[in-house]
Amino acid sequence: MTTDDPAPTEGDVNRSPLRGAWRAGLNAETRALLDDDERYFIHQSLSTPCLDVIERAEGALLFDVEGRAILDFHGNSVHQLGHGHPKVVAAIKAELDRLPFCPRRYANRPAIDLARRLIELAPAALAKVLFAPSGAAAVAMALKLARYATGRHKVLSMWDAFHGANLDTISVGSEALFRRSIGPLLSGSEHLPPLHLAKRFFGGDDQAFARFPDYIDYVLEIQGDVAALLAEPVRWTTVEGPPQGFWRQVRSSCQRYGALLIFDEIPSCLGRTGTMFACEQAEATPDILVIGKGLGGGIMPMAAIIAAASLDCAPEAALGHYTHEKSPVGCAAALAALNAIIEEDLLRRACELGRVGLERLAAIKARHSVIHDIRGLGAYFGVEIAGSDRKAANARADRLMYACLERGLSFKLGGGNVATLCPPLVIPRDQFDRAFDILDDALTALP
After folding, report:
1. 3-state class of 121 per DSSP?
2. Residue 265 pLDDT > 70
3. Is the dihedral of CA 291, 163, 253, 280 positive or negative?
4. Quick one: pLDDT at residue 49?
5. DSSP-based three-state secondary structure for 177
6. What is the dihedral of CA 221, 224, 230, 233, to 10 degrees?
7. Is the pLDDT of residue 6 over 50?
8. Model pLDDT, residue 10
9. Are 176 and 170 within 8 A, CB to CB?
10. Looking at residues 291-305, what average pLDDT do you find?
């Protein structure tokens, strides 16, 4: 795979030409474990082969087999509370002793309490929930609910979006994944231009995002029978969002033509952007909100949909039907995570980290011409690396990532050339500052 392969739009493509030298620097035990990992696991295009072996984790730090400490500014976006938050761990241990599993035909207190808490926190129009064991499963439930509720089957989504890797989600998600799978056999999906390419499609002036909603309105009108528009309120992979008012216009068009608006906030929910949900800043409440990642407190696999009560119109529909859909242990972890976010004032902390982080990045950008742009959404940052062309920018960003890994900082590359920095909201200030020092030092050493 080359560095300009389409797959890097999502990130985590560990097939860099630099990987060989990186692997050679690991000790024999680590290399042997990585060999076993490759031997026994089915390879996946976006996450294998792995780069290292992690032995334990605590707070913002990962520790590998060789004892190296790594600042985790990646975390697959699950670690708002860091790794192993004591309140989440305690809740899991207590529930394991009380009710480790609940068959689906029975209710249980942790599930009911979590549903109530999510509805209390969500925008007022959203009043019904379902739980799922993964974000992709939750997106699939949202799509199924939209089709049941509207009696339609078509879905609008955006090229380069990633909503999960099951058959339902690849049929509406990333162009590269869709093309390389049996996704084309699944009908009913139409694609819109991605948010970050608005100017390419709708004019290079400052009116591109004024024309884009008009185009979406036209597509909804001409298609006539769209069940839902599925989108991220902000493009998480490259840390980009549309201007204020964009989603409000799209929301209006969806209502006009009877299509539901589904927001995929799987990575962006639960405080990262400085509000509990990113849609609170988008001036638009969706009909269905999909959340996941950090919902399980960075430990349990938990996701959910939160929907308008009016969509609870098909009680005979099996939207989820998962063995672990009301997991007492998972729900206890999620409830503890939500309570910790509120009790520890992490929404305010996300805003404060965001302010400090952008100040640091502005100073770093002034010293390094290889940085094309810096962006931030709460405590989530994007550093876009420049190059003579896309391939050169991707290769330079790849070198930067490995240089930071050598210095003890892990992050994700999105879109091929955007270093995305996603710290835990509980990170101590000295570790937060250290991460930006590492980035600055690695940029200085970048050939």
Report:
1. helix
2. yes
3. positive
4. 85
5. helix
6. 20
7. no
8. 60
9. no
10. 97
